[in-house]
Design goal:
single chain, alpha/beta, elongated
Amino acid sequence: MESTLKRAWAEIDLDALAHNYHVLRARIGPASRFMGVVKADAYGHGAAQVSRTLEELGAEYLAVSNLDEARELRHAGVTCPILQLGVTPAEQTALALVNQITQAVWSEEAALAFSRDALRAGGRLRVHIKLDTGMSRLGFPCDEARFEDSLEAICRVCALQGLEAEGIFTHFAVSDEPDEDSRAYTLLQRRRFETMLQRLARRGCVFAIRHCSNSGAVAACPDYADDMCRPGLITYGAGRQAEELGLRPVMTLKAVVGAVNQLGPGVSVSYGRTFRTDRPSRLGVLPIGYADGLHRSLSNRWHVRTPCGMAPIVGRICMDMCMIDLTDLPQVKAGDEVEVYGLRNSVNAAAAAAGTIPYELTCAVSKRVPRVYRRDGREVARELLLRG
């Protein structure tokens, strides 16, 4: 079913995605595989289309958070290896086997459960061992106090029937931060990772794929590439480091001016009356709100780009609408397109205004916002929530 309502949409530039891929590929070098991180619906860009494009470009691996995300990609025709980074219940092992999914293993207890269920299903589950070198989230602890215990546990995991220990990896906590303390902490994590690999190799545990470089490390420490890199947000051209590397924004969030209202001075606007006109004013109503992913925290703090210049958002952003001040832009009329953020209105600046990170803004773009995919200046696909 095709949407007949033109209100808000996200344009996904597949040429920008390809540009970013080639820039990052050159940065990590020919010896390192490229793992496209497409969890959270490819950071809001649409996992199926993005994954197919990355696979066509040459990405050797993809990464998701859970089995549902992985199965979506298989149903979309994606055939390359997929790593589940998150916690997965052991009872989903049979489904992981059927869909040829690689699973992260974060503890011996989890590994034993995966091994048991893989044997019951008559298969062998490919796994990547997760090391906690300082993120304090998931993984075998690699701090000095628990290093030896983790070493022994990983050796036992590698010997389990029903599992194929293909890879080993870790995740950096502050590789995207430029200060000296953060650089030192990233180096500490890297040394813990390397030390564990060396000790495991002496025990006969050698892995085909080693990976630790997330977006921050790909940008700041390309020599950490190892066998594979996992660039996430910068693949989509968002974040400070993406700008520094000359990467292009892949998503542009747009809306149309739905109506234009003439108001006198002293008129309050929207919920809470947080904005009042101080002159005769001309306000446009945009049919986009926080239910579409435009954060309410951007109320009275952000602006949109109209065909004639920037227009500030005034008053609180509503669930389905927000208001912009067009008083100084008399040429802007109902039906005109505006850019909420994207190529000419940086999502990085929007995130700073909202007091958050670009990840949160792109991931927040809801499913009711159509994704329109463009290549070579023309629409090649679209995704809609509508069913029927």
